[in-house]
Design brief:
With 693 residues, the chain is of the alpha+beta class. The chain contains 19 helices and 23 strands. The strands form five sheets. A nine-stranded mixed sheet has the order 6-13-11-8-9-10-7-5-12. A five-stranded antiparallel sheet has the order 15-14-17-21-20.
Length: 693
Amino acid sequence: MARSLGGFLVLLIVALVSSSITASIFQPISDSHRSVALELFAPIDGSFPSLEETYEALRTFEVLGIDKKAEISGTACKSVLETLGSSSSTLKNSFHALKVNGMLKCEINEEVLEGIVSKLQAAVSSASTLLDFYYSIGGLALIKDQISRDVYLGDAEGIFRSIKALSQSDGRWRYSSSNPESSTFAAGLALEALAGVVSLSSSEIDQNLIGTTKNDILKLLDSIEKYDDGAFYFDEKLVDAHEHHGPISTTSSVVRGLAAFAAVAPGSLNLKSNKIVGLAKFFLSIDIPGDAKDLFNQVDSLAFLESNRVSIPLILSPPATVLSLTKKDAIKVKVNTVLGANGPPLTVNLAQVLSSGAKGASITENQELKYDPESAVYFLDAFPESIDVGSYIFVYEVVFHDPEHKKVYATESQTRVPMFVTGVVKIDNAEVEVLDSDLGTVEVKTKLDLTGENLVSLSANHLQKLRLSFQLTTPLGHSFKPHQAILKLRHESKVEHVFLVGNSGKKFEIILDFLGLVEKFFYLSGKYDIQLTVGDASMENSFFKAIGDVDLDLPERPEKAPRPPTQPVEPYSRYGPKAEINHIFRVPEKRPPQQLSLAFLGLTFLPLIGFLLGLLRLGVNLKNFPSSAVPAIFAGLFHFGIAAVLLLYVLFWVKLDLFTTLKMVGFLGVFLMFVGHRNLSHLASTSSKLKSA
């Protein structure tokens, strides 16, 4: 048990230290997202509850590279045709039907599409709310690619101004002019609608309107919120919102709006790259959502971020946070887009290594990581010479070295990754000594091999001291201070005493003065096992081992001295199997011979025989038994009741208990009273008739 306790202390220290350097390591979209998407977007009988959910499933499958169109297209296209062909379909339903049709390419009559164009153009002209503008303009932008002729807005600039009139000074938008509340989620819808107006305009929109919209975007980004790990997100701040939207859906709406407007607006939006990367980090930080809507928003937003015109975020993801000097691990990092594709050719530098525990100078010069095109991994195959065991913060810097990039990429200027560097710590000059308490002279001195199995046996009295010392050295020759160095003495009565081993410079040493410890040791003389525990998260050869024993001769315990604590009962002895109980039953008492028992049984029948003889002696006969049917029945029942009572007596003697017998006698008594009364009444009536005759 003591050994397991020491091992637990080592593991506990390692776990605590490891958790103290945990960082947010973001990983791009993986196969896990694909398996979860197949579970969350599972059609029922080949269909989804609504066209909106159908589009979300198709879009998620498309981004993740899952081909499910053939399975969904049959029922989905049927719903699309019904929705677009119905004159009563709402703008929202028509909008989502066109989205689904844009992905499935359903066979729709040109005349139906022409009718939808007219319906949507009329809706744009009469629109008064942001949602009306969003669905009608979005529908026209979708149908533009699904019809043979060009689709334009009649007064595009006027419509642009109408939507712009709903904007607020902080970059957010109102849903309608009659609603004073502004919304961040609505800002994303408005930017998508404005992008649709620009794409449907037959002439160039006033650049002043474009410029003020860009300023609105910058104001909106000023309200962005940030986590400690560098993730940026938007949150809805409506007090009386018609429909609440959480951070995922709100941020997703803004990302769609930004990507849509940046795709059609002339010039650049001047968005800071760290915010683009921060938005990507936010969606990657939620891991794999368990809700279909959240998964769609995550995947769809990351797809827009990866294809936007402003800058494409790149994610640097180190594969490991523990490196071993002993095994000569290489420092490897990987740069991916948010959807998991390999990034462009880059230069990745190990900019600096900040020590946070081990000795040695921090590395500040750049060291370029090599690129392996086959595995798409950047690696540093040799540690910097100043790296020793301990905890560090590795700072990576991604540099774009190709000026002819057609795409603009964004990444953090520096990525800080906490790491542990482990190694084998050398243990030298280990020895244990017994000293004279007064003069300090060495009585016994023994060398220890803490890496071997040798044990020492010592003896001492209360006037002597025990000294243990050793040295710990890192692979680079620096003195090493572990997180724990513990000496334990365990008496043969299982009483334990734990001492912390201190260090002075390069040497670890502890001196136990037994004269001052006699009360702590409860004056218990006898054999004490000596155990040493040295452990650290960076120390690959942490150990907990027995180094020997010491036989202590302590004074007799004074009368008022404290007694040793009661040792806990071993769980195995408390809950384990108990000793088998062998029980011997009492020897049966001696019984009478069988012949005597049978004779006694015969005697019990004598009263019955006497009763029958008495009846014969009295001249009992059946002459007076009633001849009429009803009186005969009651007479028979009376005699049956008498026989039942006699049988009950027999059963009581053989089997029944007193309480059961009394209950049955009660029922039979009532029965006999009734039939006996009728029987006696008949006899009395017969007797009176005879006398009168």
